[in-house]
Amino acid sequence: QVQLVESGGGLVQPGGSLRLSCAASGSILRINAMGWYRQAPGKQLELVAGITNGGNTNYDDSVKGRFTISRDNAINTVYLQMNSLEPEDTAVYYCNANLKISPLRPARDYWGQGTQVTVSS
User: 46-51 and 67-72 as β-strands: parallel, antiparallel, unpaired?
Assistant: First the structure.
């Protein structure tokens, strides 16, 4: 059974920083892309940042220059460093990983449970 466990959310003042972590565990053959999504109240789920297993990254325009995604393949973990946080960043953040658990099955997406990030004074 594969699990993605997130940590690092919380309450922070505008201009502050948070670091989210997401560790994948279980019988994993290979992890392809990993990423972070978020969903604010009343809004759709949106991609915040993604990273391939080779380290190529992409970001939503709203977070470029403020957020940094990275991963440690040795421990199946992806991180999201969030700096200069704004109230508009308030959302539930979800970790996503496209991974393969069996040589007989195609890779598919797995999701974490979500972690709340609230930016408020």
Answer: unpaired
Q: What tens-digit pLDDT sequence spans the chain (121 residues)?
A: 899 999 999 999 999 999 999 999 999 999 999 999 999 999 999 999 999 999 999 999 999 999 999 999 999 999 999 999 999 999 999 999 999 999 999 999 999 999 999 999 9
- Residue 79, beta-bridge partner list: 21, 70
